[in-house]
């Protein structure tokens, strides 16, 4: 374990601001590291999770110029928890606007969980703008993946936590948990929204690591939970706004020329390792790393080690 690589030291952003999208949103962005370094983009999870300062530490600050941003409706972006004009393809456009704003021809794109989904969608839409891909906790937004985590699958490993998810639903509503939570998360009653949001958010916060983590409690904080649950459920209700649920895998042919590293925990309960295996089969040139003794979270030791090694490799 002592040979495992960890995060780079904490560092401040050297620039930040808000990108006005022209359709009602202001997207928060920040840059850290070396302004003359290799351009990189970090895409956070959720959708609705927001980026944090620790994500800057996944890159060598001497060799990378890293862009982080909060996707529409979450983190420091405005308006908070908004679902209007908030789709995968709006986010893809936002990423392109950010790239054009910093005037780089292409950049390394790093995404985990939903971030891997959005990274694939962006790369497949703009394959000439991506120099490398680092993807963790693969999520391709197929119906089977959503049913596993929000209907019947992961629930069998965390029955006591799943019971809390079901506790506010009627017997009939339990047949479609995503739809039942949708009604509450878009309710006109803020109290109904918040109750559902905190339960939805905590389900994920308490199941993404192999072992319980103290950090899971932050998923229950009001502002975070409201944006996280509303936006996540909105995307899942609409199947990620994809044309069909195998779209991202079928379009991998557009990015096979891009160097890529895939990292996935063997015991990832949020996104099964089968997802990473299916992506590797579609993209045989990519390097697949299945991490034993790890779940879903980026900061589990084996996963983090592999991610840092990937960004170090691509820095040169």
Description:
The chain has 316 residues and is an alpha/beta fold. It has two domains: 15-142 and 241-315, Alpha/Beta hydrolase fold, catalytic domain (Rossmann fold, 3-Layer(aba) Sandwich), CATH 3.40.50; 144-240, no CATH class. 36% of the residues lie in helices and 16% in strands. It is built from ten helices and eight strands. It has helices at residues 88-102, 114-125, 143-150, 159-166, 177-185, 190-205, 222-237, 247-250, 273-282, 301-315; strands spanning 15-20, 26-33, 38-43, 64-69, 107-112, 130-136, 260-265, 287-291. Strands 1-2-4-3-5-6-7-8 form an eight-stranded mixed sheet, sandwiched between helices. Strand 7 (260-265), helix 9 (273-282) and strand 8 (287-291) form a beta-alpha-beta unit. The chain is globular. The mean pLDDT is 97.
Comma- or semicolon-separated keywords:
316 residues, alpha/beta, Rossmann fold, 10 helices, 16% strand, globular
Low-confidence stretches: none
| The named CATH superfamily of the largest domain | Alpha/Beta hydrolase fold, catalytic domain
Q: At the first level of CATH, what is the class of the largest domain?
A: Alpha Beta
Tally the helices. 10
Let me know the largest β-sheet: 8 strands, mixed
N-to-C terminal Cα separation, in Å? 25 Å
As a percent range, the share of strand residues is 15-25%
What class do helices, strands and sheet pairing give?
A: alpha/beta
